[in-house]
Amino acid sequence: MSRLRTSLRLLSGSALGACLLASGVALAAVAARSAVSALGWAPLGFAGYEFTALVSPPGNACVVAWTGLNNGGLGVSTDCGDQYARLFLPSAHDVTAQNENIGYVAAGPLGMVKTIDTGTNWYPINDGLPTIGRDARAVILHVAKPESVFCALYGGGVFVGGPKAALNDTIRWVGMNAGLTDLRVRALARVRGGTFLVAGTDGGIERWANGAWSSVAPGVIANAIVIAASDSNLVYAATEGGVYRSTNQGLSWFPSSTGLPALPINDIARRTDGLPVLYAGTRGAGVWESVNGGANWRKFGPDLAGDNDVRAVLCTVGAAAADSAMVFAGTRANGLFRAEYSTPVAPTSWGRVKDAYRR
């Protein structure tokens, strides 16, 4: 039990909902590293699970969490992925945590579930969610009000939830679907401060601001969405038609796939130190890397074992040394893999401080 408690405490950091934060650094550090062809993938196990998310909190690069289907559930590592504690066993799509005790999992047809005892027990928190279309795909912590969370349902839209009463551990959800043209939400991102949200639906990308949704990229089917920590104008989407990018907070989108194979992109992630380095998990061609904010892409490392179908990707920085980076790739059926490389140590900048307060 002590290990599970430590895992969730480290996973939360300031809160796992903030684990997508990046702490920005000067761009010079991206200039040099060993050639990607020299990289290799180390298998970490878990074949048979279909990975759905990989996350890590800022400041704890050796803490890695994943969710998976086929009863993959939730796994948490505190030793850079060598070993994992299984905190939730049924299939899961996403995870976030308020603190060392309280966590939330988007558990597909089970809806939303919550723990208040570090993962020992989980209970459903579906009050206010529809009974039809209760397929929970994403969960995001409300950083300014960590007792509240957002969730996305495939078939039910987007909801915000908060405690039913003061000091109450149960959640009541309220829909925020005004203007949402497609309730089949498969991905969700929220900017730090909450001025806008971006959702990926089966009908395209939609954006929420000022209390209502609007369609901003109809027909662009996004599997994952990332808002840049250092500049919230930059939003990236892993789509069925490659990578798309927005430079105006998700208001308009354009393809950003130069160099990528013509395959669907399952996931997209950025380095956690704020450099303009992105990683894309492809449906059949492994992991690809961009070192210029998505303008161009190149293959990252060799093919992975099996069908080379990467469903979740993550890059953490600073685990082994200040200049070390680890890239994790969770596949459709062939398990979890890890690759490592080094970059020069980058100086601290004002952006590094500022980015700690973005989401």
Question: Can you put this structure into words, describing what you see?
Answer:
With 359 residues, the chain is mainly beta. Helix content is 5%, strand content 40%. It is built from two helices and 28 strands. The strands form seven sheets. A four-stranded antiparallel sheet has the order 1-28-27-26, with no helix packed on it. The model is unreliable at 1-37 and 345-359 (pLDDT under 50).
Please name the defining characteristics of this protein:
disordered N terminus, 359 residues
Strand-residue fraction?
Answer: 35-45%
Biggest sheet, strands in spatial order? Answer: 1-28-27-26
Cα Rg: 19 Å
The pLDDT mean sits at: 84
Basic shape = globular
- Determine the fraction of residues in helical runs and give it as a percent range: under 10%
- Secondary-structure-based class equals mainly beta
Number of β-strand runs? 28
Helix/strand order = HEEEEEEEEEEEEEEEEEEEEEEEEEEEEH
Biggest sheet character = 4 strands, antiparallel
Oligomer: single chain
As residue ranges, the low-confidence spans are 1-37, 345-359
Number of helices: 2
Terminal residue distance: 31 Å
